[in-house]
Fold:
Amino acid sequence: MPSSMKEKLANVLHELPKEDEKFDVIVQDAFPGALSNRKLLTKLVDILEKKGFYEENTLLATSLCCDELARKLESRLNGLYGHHFALGGLSGFPFAGFTGFAAMTAHIPDNGFCFCVYAPHVGITKDGVIGRVERKGIALVDTCCGSAIKASSYVYKITHGGAEISTDIQEFTDFQQSAVNELILPHAHNLSEAKDRMVALPFAIYETQDLLMRKIIKRGSLGLKRGIAILGGIQINTSPETLDYFLPLRFELINYRGEVEEDLLPLLMKE
Ligand SMILES: [Zn+2]
Structure:
């Protein structure tokens, strides 16, 4: 690894909270296999370096929620790979669509790569309540992800009663949330049957998000230069004192024809 990447990683890790074994048990119980951001970033830099990804030849792209908590991982990635092209909106869905993706690929350095991270997010409090998180300077332990939970309540009222009978279809002033509500409708049954709806919710959002991302990448793949590494999963936001986590669900190297060249997930999940 060039010393510059090593130095960047050291600087980024230096800013993160320490590992907390007791809290790690709580996170693993809800989301088995989740990696702390410390572990995730260390492994990512190592794996991607072996594939030839450095800051100089890599454009970072993200599809993460609007919530400032989603920036916690993104800003660490900025510290490694520079500014990102933002594809995402509420709940982390890639609202920039085909047009945004095509614009992004045009900004990939010549003969370089794109590294794209997409994920819904979910909060977990210090004592393990899922779907909520402590926020700096706010006494109220609020919901996270607010957009996903709002969509989940919308679906719940449809399946369990209480939905408003309305002739309104969509208004532009709340276009993204209306889209999130609609996109999670096919998960209504699974969410109703789930042992813990708050654990099932980010997986449901991820499934649709992953479908969308792959569709967008397939259509825009010709603009990819040396290729794209995609990391999809669930971002787990925690209190300001503890490390955030990420549960990787897809990590692949894809070429300009949109074909998967290598499944990198086993490397990332290796102990
Ligand atoms: Zn959110």
Observations:
- The first helix runs from residue 3 to 14.
- The mean pLDDT is 96.
